[in-house]
Amino acid sequence: MTQTGPRRLHNSGMEDESRDQSPSSSTGMRLIVPLQGIVQGRGGLILGSVIPCAMFYFLQFYLKRRRSPPNPPEHHTSSPPSPAPSSSNLTELSRSASRSNLLMSRGSIGRPHVSSRVHCIAKSNDSPYYIGLDKVSADPYDSFSNPNGVIQLGLAENRLTLDLIENWIAEKLNDSILGGGLSVSGIATYQPFDGMPELKVAMAGFMSQVMGRTVTFDPSQIVLTSGATSAIEILCFALADQGNAFLIPAPYYPGFDRDMKWRTGVELIPVHCRSSDNFTLSIPVLDQAFNQARKRGQKVKGILLSNPSNPVGNLMTRETLFSLLDFAREKNIHIISDELFAASTFGDEEFVSMAEIIDSEDTDKDRVHIVYGLSKDLALPGFRVGVIYSYNENVLTVSRKMTRFSPVSAPTQRIVTSMLSDTTFIKDFTERNRERLRAMYDLFVEGLEELGIGCTKSSGGLYCWCDMSGLIRPYNEKGELDLWDKLLNVAKINITPGSSCHCIEPGWFRCCFTTLDEKDIPVVIERIRSVVETCKSPS
Amino acid sequence: MAIEIVQPSVELSKIALSETHGEDSPYFAGWKAYDENPYHELHNPSGVIQMGLAENQVSFDLLEEYLESNLESSNWGQKVSGFRENALFQDYHGLVSFRKAMASFMEEVRGGKAKFNPERIVLTAGATAANELLTFILANPGDALLVPTPYYPGFDRDLRWRTGVQIVPIHCESSNNFQITPEALEAAYDHARSMNIKVKGVLITNPSNPLGATIQRKVLEEILDFVTRKNIHLVSDEIYSGSAFYADEFVSIAEVLESRNYKDSERCHIVYSLSKDLGLPGFRVGTVYSYNDQVVTTARRMSSFTLISSQTQFLLASMLSDKEFTRKYIKINRERLKKRYEMIINGLKKAGIECLKGNAGLFCWMNLSPYLEEPTIESELAIWKTIMHEVRLNISPGSSCHCSEPGWFRVCFANMSEETLEVALSRIHEFITTRKQ
Predict the structure, then answer these.
(1) Which one of A84, A166, A321, B393 counts the least CB within 10 Å of its CB?
(2) Residue B419: which pLDDT band, with cuts at 50, 70 and 90?
(3) DSSP assignment letter at A223
(4) Mean pLDDT across chain A
(5) How confident is the model at residue A442 (pLDDT cuts 50, 70, 90)?
(6) pLDDT by residue (tens digit) across B370-385?
(7) Low-confidence winner among A49-63, A149-163, A521-535 (lowest mean pLDDT)
């Protein structure tokens, strides 16, 4: 129910799409007038007024009961009360919400309301993606100290090359933070929110090295922010209004549901890809999704691509990229190309960046924006370094202003600048990274094949996309989640079910293999085997 | 014959096109003037002196000294094993050791008069992010927060731009030293209601920016009673708490809540940061401390968009838990700020300029209303422009802080050397003397 009153001040000029559920008192009034009309015919003024008024007051009383709550008072000691153990499940939260339906005890004023976003956020942690991550945190596998723990295959984290970075750090750390002579005052003061110029230059160089091929990246088109998560959110704020939509090839990274929608109010429209196409994007299907959205009255503002794709690991071909650009041009929408895994490729195909496609165009670059970061390719997710690379001056200007809410920490900028500028190290690192990815991928896929589980042929990312549809019963989402549950709680393996990724075909799972050591693979395969056997045995 | 269709350029969002980022206000125009012609003792002695940036440089040496003598622990002493976890660590709960260190530091700043539970600390990349985050959590688009005037110009952007939330001012006047009164609170609330705007909370800055003064305990109690009566939230931005010149003159809302046994504390949230007290704005370390479980959980998840680098957390964890260092730092910092404050106040007095009696912060609230042609904002901006272009000082006009009385200016004094401050004071002296003639 929206608020009444057109006399609201509009400082920000935004549309108000309040999803607030608590009705204002004017709802009551809305009921009275027609009621009065009805009763007035027979009862005259008294019945015409008394009955509606009585109903109005009862309505208010009823609504007051349903408004949100006070919790029963906590036991207070002189030290600040500890929060309830942070719950990642909706169940805990809904328990307290239902308590809210009880009448308030006299004397207590009641809890202040929070925004409607809060409830949406609470719900999203219900997804298997997050539940699995929590299970691992609670009981993480370690070959020595906790061999019966949950093995993490649900987080796209690259541990295969950390030793290379450690070595670099060991040799060069002091110089890089303190600048070999420069004191901390060089980095302690306010810096430009969108990143230090030295880091932009180093980042442009790095991007040119690992994803450029024929093109170079321009530092003046770079905006730095605290992680690709933040980069994507900023672009959503800049390109779309609340309620607008982005088309996104599915299956897609589960985090997008949270990152892109939470605070921006943007919608995601999945464009389903199929196993028959090896889960590559089909332009006719994209077109259909766009038209259906339009029929529904939904305004599509852009397409979000992941290339290399997550969770499938496909690389987009030049042809597809050109076709996408044509499509975006025709519909006059934006393209966000999330190229976070650009240097994490291991197949025979080569990665082609959107930057290369746009480079050959003379006009119409304004609609293309690239997202990048160091969390995957450089295995530094903790450092929070994300990049927005745009050809649109206005988008750059707005993004720069928005980075004040999510800037990169100065000492981190310094160390990363040093690292990225060491082109010899970077060259060596990316080559060894590719080799190790390839080796691990081969081993893992081979192991799965022994169990009769096939994977799509992928060339990038830190994971493989596995077909376990033969093992699920029934052949639908429930069957898939049953298998996921068995794997998580019985075999103690955390992998990501396709339904969390909005895959339209049940039975597919994303398995990240870069959190493992080689020796862990047989352990993983054995554990999966135990579940596979139970699935295959006649029940 | 084909008609040429001009392709409309691809659209941006309303937020992108709105002016709410506020960077066209005079507050930021002054910065441009400084950027174009920055003062330097040797290379550009006639340049613009930056007195519009509230940055604390008076105690840098203490930090440098600490970091240099503690290098081992501050950068992965156990290099190999420590680094790996660090590089991968992106848990929005934050490094436990760092949260404990922040809680400990916040307690030190309040002289141990309030206790902080590390489990309630949510880390964000700066207080700017913390304020925006809280606004997203506490209010829906179109709702309002009540903020006492004059207030930090950045709030117009931080609280409103992407959140769609409005600010309704609580008017404060010089007649009582700009203190917040219960009448002003009620008036602001009623004003919002009369426009059919839902008020979700009150946001105070204590010590106040731009006033440079702490909020008295009695006033804090009144504000707490008010928000309790109206069943709304209270956000207390305490980023200048370590910059109060006398430790016992600052009272945190945490102390008031403690004295009330935390009754009804679920509506209270504190914002803190290391940018002002510790002079490390480049590190981007901010925190939301909430007494409300639901807010803590939500803020934590939302902090995914604005996490503090794990490396920075590690770097600072040991420094902030070092009580010997923090105690010494806080004490010396307070003394130096006080000395600077006295220097600028006396300097201004000699020139015949009065300031609000302040006791905290990195700036003073200067009264130039006697020198205005007329008591209007236009006159204030006229004199501000003169000061910017002729006297070559960048100071912040009260109108960008939404002050209801024209003629007040915020003048920062902690982001420069004493010598530079002397130069600035002499320029002001000269300006006023000329003007009097």
Answers:
(1) A84
(2) very high
(3) E
(4) 81
(5) very high
(6) 999 999 999 999 999 9
(7) A49-63
Closest CA to B366 of B375, B353, B350, B377: B353
Confidence of residue A23 (pLDDT cuts 50, 70, 90): very low
Predicted TM-score (pTM) of this structure? 0.85
Per-residue pLDDT at B184 exceeds 90: yes
Q: What is the pLDDT of residues B95-118, one digit of tens each?
A: 899 999 999 999 999 999 999 999
What Å distances lie between residue A434 and A180, A317, A439, B312, CA to CA?
32, 20, 9, 29
Instruction: Please compute the mean of the pLDDT values over residues A334-360 and round it to a whole number.
Output: 92
Contact A78 B258 (CB under 8 A): yes
Distance CA A216, CA A204 (A): 7
| B 210-229 residues inside an 8 A Cβ radius of A | 227-229
The verdict on whether B293 is a catalytic residue reads no
Q: Strand A496-497's sheet: what is its strand order?
A: A454-455, A463-467, A508-512, A496-497
**Alpha helices in B270-416, H assignment, sequence order:** 293-302, 310-321, 323-350, 377-386
Structure tokens at B153: 């110009």
Decide if pLDDT at A84 tops 60: no
Q: Please answer whether residues A211 and A393 qualify as being in contact, where contact means their C-beta atoms are separated by less than 8 angstroms.
A: no
Identify the CA nearest to B292 among candidates B257, B259, B260, B242: B257
H or E segment and range at residue A55: helix A25-66
Contact A263 B136 (CB under 8 A): yes
**Chain A closest-CA separation from residue B379 CA (Å):** 25
Query: Could you tell me whether strands B144-148 and B166-170 are parallel, antiparallel, or unpaired per DSSP bridges?
Result: parallel
Contact in structure between A20 and A4 (CB atoms under 8 Å): no
CB contacts of A114 in chain B (<8 Å) are 137-138, 294-295, 298
Catalytic residue chosen out of the listed positions B100, B170, B276, B291: B276
C-alpha angle A113-A115-A116 in degrees, rounded to nearest 5: 115
Residue in chain B nearest A93 by alpha carbon:
B294
Quote the CA–CA distance of A513 and A441 in Å, as a whole number: 7
pLDDT value, residue B29: 77
Cα–Cα distances in angstroms (integers) from residue B36 to residues A157, A411, B32, B389, B394, in the given order: 45, 27, 6, 12, 12
From residue A24, alpha-carbon distances to A63, A67, A139, B136, B434 in Å are 10, 11, 47, 21, 60
For residues A353 and A342, the answer to whether their CB atoms sit within 8 Å is: yes
Contact A234/A225 with Cβ under 8 angstroms? yes
Tell me the sheet residues that pair with B182. none
**Is B266 in a helix, a strand, or coil?**
helix
Going by C-beta distance under 8 Å and a sequence separation of 6 or more, which residues neighbour residue B65?
none
Separation between Cα atoms, residue A133 and residue A127, nearest integer Å: 10
Which of A82, A189, A405 shows the shortest C-beta gap to B281?
Answer: A189
Option in A109, A301, A381 nearest B90 (CB): A381
- pLDDT tens for A191-211 read 899 999 999 999 999 999 988
Interface predicted TM-score (ipTM):
0.91
A122 or B4, which is more confident: A122
Per-residue pLDDT at A395: 96
Mean pLDDT (whole number) for A303-312: 96
The pairing of beta strand B363-367 with beta strand B354-355: antiparallel
Amino acid, res. A450: E
What is the distance in angstroms between the Cα of B133 and the nearest Cα belonging to chain A? 9
Of A326, A321, A385, A340, the closest CA to residue A211 belongs to: A340
